[in-house]
Amino acid sequence: MPLREVNGVRLLVEESGSGDPLVLVHGSWDDRQAWVLVEDDLARRFRVVSYDRRGHTGSEDGAERGSRRDDEDDLAGLIETLDLAPAHVVANSFGASIALGLAARQPELFRTLCAHEPPLVSLAADDPAVATFGEAVPPVLELIGRGEPEAAAREFVEIVLGPGAWDMMHEAERATMVANADTFAGEALDPAWADIDLDALGGITVSVLLTQGDQSPPMFARIIARLAAAMDNAEVRTLPGAGHVPHATHPAAYVAVISRHAAG
Asked: Is the peptide bond before 86 cis (omega within 30 degrees of 0)?
């Protein structure tokens, strides 16, 4: 897989398929392998581009601790370098925060955007469910700081996906999370990691699909409701039986949702 230099770092990028360009943006703790169960099906309809975000697995990190703005600039740079604009963009979790943040700044890079459960907790900071999540993050960062990335990853997974979720994950998935723990800590230390410019988002004409799972922690529904209220062109879709990672648990249904939105 080739390394592409974007904004001074080399990112691991993979392409497959042909057709309209579609970029996949993974979340925290993760890498491009998160999309493995949906990538082949999407490649039957689209030119699919997936990549490891900076500091994740096969991609380089910057000389200094990065910010979400750096990830947004990387996504923009990748779209421009590969001549993908305007591209369909599909993003999960913190990747969805990145994609929404870039769409607010450079909507011309997007043809459509499908964002699943961005953890933009500043949008619902007064909600008890969001406050509980905010209180749970510092202990995870403390474990990482003490050199206990596996314990930190386990705790985070069980906060977001539920008790017992860590033991149900494949060994390779757990290893990826442990390897990327330090990068998660850097993301969480960015003062603006959970913020978004709702006024700028409200002005874009890009077709946005906000998805959520009916088995996800309730805070995501609160956040998505705030985003949807701010955007005239946003549609909300709840995925039955799914949680925070529908591309892993309900790949066929998720591909169908993505494809319909892009076609529309």
From this structure: yes
**What is the maximal distance between C-alpha atoms in the chain?**
48
9 phi, psi to nearest 5 deg: -125, 150
d(C-alpha 91, C-alpha 134), whole Å: 22
Q: What is the DSSP letter of 87?
A: E
Spatial contact of 141 and 185, defined as CB atoms under 8 Å apart: yes
Cis bond before residue 118 (omega within 30° of 0): no
Domains of the chain listed by start with CATH number = 3-123+195-263 (3.40.50.1820)
pLDDT tens digits for 30-43? 999 999 999 999 99
Label residue 126 by pLDDT band (50, 70, 90).
confident
pTM: 0.95
In 3D space, the residue among 83, 1, 68, 81 whose CA is nearest the CA of residue 39 turns out to be: 1
Q: Give the integer Cα–Cα distance in Å for 62 and 59.
A: 10
130, 121 contact by CB (below 8 A) = yes
Burial of 144 (0-12, 13-18, 19+ CB in 10 A): buried
